[in-house]
Amino acid sequence: MVRAISKPWGEEYLLYQNDDVAIWHLYINPKQKTSLHSHPNKKTGLLVLDGAAKVRFLSNYQVLFAGDKTMIRHGVFHQTHNPVGCMLQLLEIETPVDKTDIVRLEDDYGRAGTTKMGEDAGEVYRIPDLKNSCMIGDCVLWHAKVEDVYVDHWDHVMITDGYIKSLGHNVCEPGDIVSTENFDIMSEKFEVGDIKGIWVKVCK
What we know:
- By secondary structure, the protein is mostly beta strands.
- It has 2 domains: 2-125, Jelly Rolls, CATH 2.60.120; 134-202, no CATH class.
- The chain contains 1 helix and 18 strands.
- The protein has a 7-stranded antiparallel beta sheet, with no helix packed on it. Strands 13, 14, 15, 16, 17 and 18 form a 6-stranded antiparallel beta sheet that branches. A 3-stranded antiparallel beta sheet has the order 7-6-9, with no helix packed on it.
- The longest helix is centred in the C-terminal third of the chain and has 10 residues, at 180-189.
- It is globular, with a radius of gyration of 17 Å.
- The two termini are 27 Å apart.
């Protein structure tokens, strides 16, 4: 059981954390959006579970639906907008773990230039049992080692442990979201070490 954190645009709670990554489950209310912000020292991945997201950058944007993902490198300004009339649910994976690593450029709620993170919402959430497959929104999630899964049965993996390495350099590491198609291609050519992650399958 965890306490939800209230945000002016909705709520979030911590779904999973280890020494390398934190994964947050975000609920963004209809027609609301996060600040336009960057993380100077961490990378962020977003994966939509239910609804639609318009992810704005400084000069362009992406539209994501259930099962779609994007990776945002450190220092890149971005904003997640729920443009429709139903709740948006998504997962946000961050590495390194540091919620204060934020620079807000614009904000509809008066938080530009601050690192304010939100307050206890007074709501309690039961964390899904990720050791067994569970459904959130339109997606099934399962936290497992790569050797325990049939990779081609899933759409993406949010890497929480391990690496894919080539010539001594990490090609994929904790904090990355990788399509299982790309995971298969890389794992045939590169060294794979102890990969564990949250596997995601769209069931809509």
